[in-house]
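From the shared-data thread, chain only:
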Amino acid sequence: MTLSSIIIQKIKQHGPISFCDFMEMALYYPELGYYTSSHEKIGKVGDYYTSSNLTSAFGEMLGKQIEEMWHILGEKEFTVVEMGAGMGLLSGDVLSYLKKNHELYRDLKYCIVEKSPTFRNEQKKRLEGQNVSWYDSITELSGMKGCIFSNELPDAFPVHVVVMENELMEVFVDYEVEKGFIEVLRPATGELKNYLEELKISLPFGYRTEINLNAIKWMQEIGSTLKKGFVITIDYGYPSDELYQEYRNRGTLMCYYKHSVNETPFERIGEQDMTTHVNFSALDLWGRKNGLDLCGFTDQAHFLMGLGIDEYLKNLQEKDPVNYYRKMLPVKTLLMEMGETFKILIQEKGVEHFELSGLKFPSRYRID
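Structure, as C-alpha cells:
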C-alpha cells in the first residue's frame, strides 16, 4: 500500500486531518515517509545539499566553537549532542577537529539523537570506530553538561498551517475522488492562538503562515535535559519581525525533489522533502521559558568570519596551493550564497558571562 493510500484511508475513517498530521505522515511514517525510507536524500543524487556536503570547513569551524565552549565550562567532562545528524558528514568533520585537542577528546562524550533508521545506519557506517553513541530522544541524556547542536533540524518539524479570516483558522487536509487532496478550514485551537499572542503577532486578514508547535516541545526537552552549557541551532529562517512581512503572506512551506523546488505538498508524498522557515524569536522565547538564555544570534557568514574562516583559507592556500581554488569555492558558497540565508542561534544555561568567537561580528538580524 502506498503512503498516499494510507493517508486517504485515515481521512475516510476519521475525517479531515490537520496539515501537521499530514506532514508528519509524509515525512516520518514508518518505512514509507520521506525521512524513514531508504532512497537517497542528500547530495548529488538526492534532493538537496547541506553545508557539510560542500566542504569540511563548516564542521571544522563549528568544532572550533565547541572547543571554545569546552574551555568556558572549565575543561572537564564534556558532552556533545548532535540532533538529527543526516549522513554523518558534519559529525565526522566536528570530531576530526576535536580530536586535535587530546585533553578535550579524552573526556568527550559524543552523542547523536537520530530517529531515522536510514540515516542512523549511514552514520554508523561513516563513523565506525569513533567514540559515538546513539539515542532515540534527547531526554535520555538528562543532566548533561556541554553543547547541544543541530544543523537544519527544526525546519523539518511538522507544522500547523493557519489562515487569518474573521478569526484564526487552521488548514486541514481532506480527500475527494474527483479532486484528490483538498484543503478545508476549521477554527484554530487555543494553543495556536496563544502562540501568536505570546509572540505579539497580529496577522492581517487573508494572511497564511505556519506555526511550529513541535519547536516549542523541542525547546522544552532541551531545556529540561541540559544542566549546564550551550545550544547551537543552525537553520534557515528569521526573527518574527522579518518572518511575518507582508510579502510572505502565503507562508514559507517548500518542497524539495531532485534539487528542484515546488509548493505542491500533495504530490510525490513520501518522495519529496517538506520544510518551513524557522521562527528564531519563538525558539528564543520558549527557550527562555525553559531556562535557556540568549547568547546571540547571527548569520552563517558572520559566524564563520568570527571563528577565523579567513585564516582557514590562508592556511589552505599555503598548504595546498595546487588545489586551493577547488577547495576554496565551496567555502565561498558557505559565505556568499548560504551566508545570509542560514542563521545561528546560540543559547546557554548556567554559564557565566563570556564572549563567543562565533558571535564576534554582529549581523543585521536581531532578536529583541
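Residues 79 and 109 are 5 Å apart (CA to CA).
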